[in-house]
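Quick start: what a row looks like.
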Amino acid sequence: MSKKLSDRRIIRFIKWLTAQGAEMLPTTNELEVIRFRCAQGVGVLYRNTKNKNIYNSGPIVTEALNAYLNGSKWAGKGKPTKRTYCSRRKQQLLNRDGDECFYCGQPLGRDVTEEHLVALNQGGPNRLENLVLAHKPCNLKAGNLPVMEKVRLREAMRAEVAEQ
C-alpha cells in the first residue's frame, strides 16, 4: 500500500489511533512516520524519502489506515492483550521459560527484554539457547557480567524478593 498523505491527515490519523485505544510509540528512524501498538500488535507507517509517499510494513497499518479513511470499524481497536506485543522469539522464550524475569522471578508483564547469558561482546551467540527474558532494570543491572556472576546476581535478587 502506497499513498500520499498530508501532514495534517497524518496528525488526524494519530489522533484517531489514540482515540481507538492504540498506544503511540517513539519512532526508531527517520523514515518512520508513526509507530503504534494496538490489540493486533505493533504497526509502523513509513515515508519514502524520494517521493514522500507513505507506505507500511504490514496488515496492521493497512487495516487501521483503511478503517480511518473509510470511517469503518477497525479490528485492532483497543489495547493489546498480554502477549500480542511480543516478537516471535520472545514468544518462544515465554513458552520455554514462563512469564517471569530470569533475575528477580517476578512476572514480566510488559517490561520484557531479551538477555544474553553470554554477552554478545564476549562472543555469546544470538540464539535461543543463550537467551532468557528479564525486566529492563534487571537486565541493565546484569550488564555484561560473566555467566557465573549473572547466576549469583539472580540468586541474590530472588533472595531479596523473597525477604520482602
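That is the whole record. The chain has two domains: 2-70, 88-163. The longest strand covers residues 32-38.
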